[in-house]
């Protein structure tokens, strides 16, 4: 029996999603005979307040392992990881540096390119320095465009811009989540995701959404999206896509677990969009779906991540 503090909630826009992940993890670890301490962090706290709150909780509870089920700001940007390191507590997932890189889509894109991965052509814009549409060189990209905040998850603030008159509204929507924005070419193709567990690729998942892209509504409206596990790809292509997922994971320096979102374009090339260092972790989330296809049950997956945090390396196991 290991005493595990499961951190969930937090001050980000992904608070409710994080609660669902954390509740699922806590229940799974309880079934695996761990002593589970569920720590729900109020959304109303500032990042500094949340950090103080968690520090007090962890110092009082004295867990052996911290399971991070926090999505978005505070949970994926290195803040909570740095706190765990300061308290000398083992924790699940990537270290502070990889977490910061994964959360910053602009920095991550540069690391992907440096690793030789294909990424969408893009421009960056900081509205705090250069406000307005006039600073976007749309001719260099051409419509349609995707506008997104540089540091946000779950497709919050993301818009598909099909024509010039839509751009200002899209910039305004993205700016609700921060002034630094990423404006990318829209890549048409098959939406895929690759989970990586202990540096090994899980089966590829294909996402078939009725929406133009896999936005918030497609992700969280029950029945709105079809998930194919494994994705119907020929073996050689599946290996190519998995290799891109592992390469993106390594480019950021991730450890333990991640999930890379990609588009398979018309030329059959995987185009890397982003890496999620704390992917959704409900029993029906994409990474657990892929793990189940590989023979790793949800409970075993949660248990394995605790062991990885304790020992920093645990061989893949298909326990059920």
Molecular structure report:
The protein has 320 residues and is of the alpha+beta class. The chain has 3 domains: 3-93, Rossmann fold; 121-185, Dna Ligase, domain 1 (2-Layer Sandwich); 188-277, ATP-grasp fold, B domain (D-amino Acid Aminotransferase, Chain A, domain 1, 2-Layer Sandwich). The chain is 35% helix and 22% strand. Strand 1 (3-9), helix 1 (15-31) and strand 2 (35-41) form a beta-alpha-beta unit.
Keyphrases for this structure?
22% strand, Dna Ligase, domain 1, 13 strands, alpha+beta, D-amino Acid Aminotransferase, Chain A, domain 1, disordered C terminus, 4-stranded antiparallel sheet, 320 residues, 10 helices, 6-stranded antiparallel sheet, Rossmann fold, single chain
Helix and strand topology:
Elements: E1 3-9, H1 15-31, E2 35-41, H2 47-61, E3 65-68, H3 79-86, H4 96-103, H5 105-114, E4 122-126, E5 145-149, E6 159-161, H6 167-175, E7 180-185, E8 190-197, E9 200-201, E10 205-208, H7 216-220, E11 226-228, H8 235-252, E12 257-264, E13 270-276, H9 286-293, H10 298-311
CATH architecture of the largest domain: 3-Layer(aba) Sandwich
Strand content: 15-25%
Poorly predicted segments:
313-320
**What's the tally of helices?**
10
- CATH C-level category of the largest domain: Alpha Beta
What's a concise summary of this model?
The protein is of the alpha+beta class and about 325 residues long.
């Amino acid at each position: 029996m290991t005493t595990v503090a499961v951190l969930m909630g937090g001050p980000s826009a992904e608070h409710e999603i994080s609660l669902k992940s954390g509740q699922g993890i806590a229940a799974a670890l309880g079934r695996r005979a761990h002593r589970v301490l569920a720590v729900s962090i109020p959304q109303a706290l500032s990042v500094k307040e949340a950090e103080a709150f968690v520090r007090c909780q962890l110092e009082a509870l004295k867990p052996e392992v911290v399971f991070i089920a926090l999505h978005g700001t505070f949970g994926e940007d290195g803040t909570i990881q740095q706190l765990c390191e300061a308290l000398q507590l083992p924790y699940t997932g990537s270290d502070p540096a990889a977490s910061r890189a994964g959360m910053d889509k602009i920095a991550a894109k540069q690391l992907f390119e440096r690793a030789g991965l294909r990424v969408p052509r893009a421009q960056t814009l900081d509205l705090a320095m250069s406000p307005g549409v006039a600073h976007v060189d749309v001719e260099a990209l051409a419509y349609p465009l995707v506008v997104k905040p540089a540091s946000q998850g779950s497709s919050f603030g993301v818009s598909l811009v099909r024509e010039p008159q839509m751009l200002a509204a899209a910039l305004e929507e993205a700016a609700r989540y921060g002034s630094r924005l990423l404006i990318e070419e829209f890549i048409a193709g098959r939406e895929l995701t690759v989970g990586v567990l202990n540096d090994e690729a899980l089966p590829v998942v294909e996402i078939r959404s009725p929406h133009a892209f896999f936005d918030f509504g497609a992700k969280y409206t029950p029945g709105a999206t079809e998930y194919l596990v494994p994705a119907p790809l020929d073996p050689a292509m599946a290996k190519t896509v998995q290799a891109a997922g592992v390469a993106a994971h390594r480019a950021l320096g991730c450890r333990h677990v991640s999930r890379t979102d990609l588009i398979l374009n018309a030329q059959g090339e995987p185009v890397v969009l982003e890496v999620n260092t704390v992917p959704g972790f409900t029993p029906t989330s994409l990474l657990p779906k892929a793990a189940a296809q590989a023979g790793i049950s949800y409970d075993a997956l949660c248990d394995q991540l605790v062991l990885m945090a304790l020992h920093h390396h645990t061989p893949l196991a298909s326990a059920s």
